[in-house]
Amino acid sequence: MLVEIKNLTQIVSGYNQSSISTVAKLFKKICKKIIITSVFEAELIKLFSNAYRYIHFAIANEFYMICKKYSVNFNKLRKNMIDGYSRNSSLPSQGLTAGPCLLKDTMQLFSFTKNTFDLGLTSMKINERLPIFLINNIEKKISLKNKTVGILGLAFKAETDDIRDSLSIKLLKYLKKRKINTLQSDPFYKNEKNIDAKSLIKKSDIVFIATPHNQYKKLNIPKKKIVIDVWNIL
Prior knowledge:
By secondary structure, the protein is of the alpha/beta class. Helices cover 45% and strands 10% of the residues.
């Protein structure tokens, strides 16, 4: 956030000209451009921006789950969709989409519209069900009973210790609820139950790469291990 703030256009608003002028003066020293709007417009811009991104990720996750159902490699299919066709270039890859803003602001917009924000509701259902889908999908192939499942990454996104609304945490909780033996690791989020990544891989039968931390790209995971690389970083 501190790196981005100086490069992003900042929306400035307030309830009187004095407060707007003060805030505008401050942000002109920090970022390259500011836009002054009404308070209501500023709030809608924030909610719309995060809901738009959340819906965008939901489309990718829905496509990913459809491909899994029919044993199609979504990442390969996505590359073919994008190759030479700029209209599809904005399609993101799949992932455990969460965090303190995307879900929260989509929920707030749904509430603000008196529960009529249908795209928002659908996107929440899609993104939030991905952890359960991943568990059910692996259980179609092997029984998780008497297996140890390792979760690599607990933060909601890479290179942070923030676990707010993290789907990695929800994945871990769903596994524990089914009384499946689990191990967990994260290089940024500190927790007494964490173990280092190498030990987790060694002790686990199944490894979920639940958060795409950069250091996981260099992991050497034996072929005998079952790896669910949600983010396709390996």
